[in-house]
Amino acid sequence: MSWERAILIVLDGCGVGSAPDAKEYGDWGENEPNTLGHLASAVGGVHLPTLQRMGLGNLVAMEGVPPHPTPIALYGKVQPHSKGKDSVTGHWEMMGIHTEVPFPTYPNSFPPEVIEPFEAQIGRKVLGNYPASGTEIIKQLGEEHLRTGRPIVYTSADSVFQIAAHEAVIPLDELYRYCEIARALLQPPHHVQRVIARPFVGQNANSFKRTENRRDFPLPPPPNLIDALAEHQVGIYGIGVVPELFVYRGFRHAERTQSNPDHYQSLLRAMESDCAFLFANFEDFDMLYGHRNDPVGFAKALEAFDAMLADLLSRLLPTDLLILTSDHGNDPTTPSTDHSREYLPLLIYSPQLAQGRSLGICRSLADIGATIAQRWGITLPAGEPIALGSD
């Protein structure tokens, strides 16, 4: 297969069944995940004709999405290799970075050696300092924050240091400055993957609502495929959270869009650009529905994406290569509201393909990066190129 442009879309949180090492991550028993399979059953079936035609029902059992007799895409699963089940680890692995040692997490609270220097540098005490849902903690502490002006600090099962503040109490520029202070302070052994600004608005606990002014401050990644492509003068267009996860390094264009419809409009703009690698994250599945245990909302978001995908397929050039995958699971039907350790879907399509086939199980998301790298004669330290065939 001869292709000139790669379009990589990450369906954030869309796992397809418990990975072999899921128990190591607490994902077993009543928390044993199968994000797409379980949510489809929970809502009585989903209507995803485009994803079905590509072969999604051939790689995971989903009510309403039966296997297709002649799928148009190469289809399979990916077993994540890196230690961790979060967006940074997943996206880094796609670009050829294997994270062998997990980043630190804080199941109880951040210790004094983290919080006290942070408070000293921002000149205020903090509220919270415990693991929580972002929407719940602003209900719990938002009114006290309005009274005191103290920022809300919290974490989750992921390696994150999150700072929530009302936009009228701590303006966005100040909140982002707090995040930069935290990022500089959080060095080994407290090198959390991401510091995240979580601004919100509203008058009281019943009306508080997070805004779309979130901003991520991740650790800089090691050298990876994006760096190598940039060195080869290959234009890269990053969409959604993707550029932030790679600290904007190597991107010719970057759009920090905040919702699936906006991500898609950005993708259409990217297709009119001079870039040969388009890398987009569609985060609504995870952020709005997986973390809130909302299978109905998750299913509706999938159906809306399926319609976007149908439109995208009609716009592809003969020399385009489209890759759909995910970074981790987030099963909305289990008691947990955290990410889940799962196999991840892999669908690869080009108009040049006469018919799809099974890829089986890939052993790393880095295989995706290796496949893209091969086009420009680049070899990555992790991953094996996927045989695409010559149809």
Descriptive report:
It is built from 13 helices and 14 strands. With 391 residues, the protein is α/β, with parallel strands linked by helices. The chain has an eight-stranded mixed beta sheet, sandwiched between helices.
| Strand line-up in the sheet with most strands | 10-9-11-1-12-13-2-14
| Main pleated sheet | 8 strands, mixed
Total tally of structural domains: 2
Q: Give, in order, the helices and strands.
A: EHHHEHHEHEEHEEEHEHEHEHHEEEH
Strand-residue proportion: 15-25%
What share of the residues lie within helices?
25-40%
User: Radius of gyration from the CA trace?
Assistant: 21 Å
CATH classification, class level of the largest domain: Alpha Beta
CATH fold node name of the largest domain? Alkaline Phosphatase, subunit A
CATH homologous superfamily grouping of the largest domain: Alkaline Phosphatase, subunit A
What's the total number of strands?
14
- Number of alpha- plus pi-helical segments: 13
Unreliable stretches (pLDDT < 50, length at least 5) are: none
Q: Averaging pLDDT over every residue, what do you get?
A: 96
Task: Summarize the helices and strands and which ones pair or pack.
Blueprint: E1 5-11, H1 35-42, H2 49-54, H3 56-59, E2 74-78, H4 87-94, H5 112-122, E3 127-131, H6 134-148, E4 152-155, E5 160-166, H7 172-185, E6 194-201, E7 209-210, E8 215-218, H8 225-231, E9 236-239, H9 242-245, E10 253-255, H10 260-271, E11 277-282, H11 284-290, H12 295-315, E12 320-325, E13 344-349, E14 358-362, H13 366-375
Parallel strand pairs: 1-11, 1-12, 2-14, 3-4, 5-6, 9-10, 9-11
Antiparallel strand pairs: 2-13, 4-5, 6-7, 6-8, 12-13
Helix pairs in contact: 5-7, 10-12, 11-12
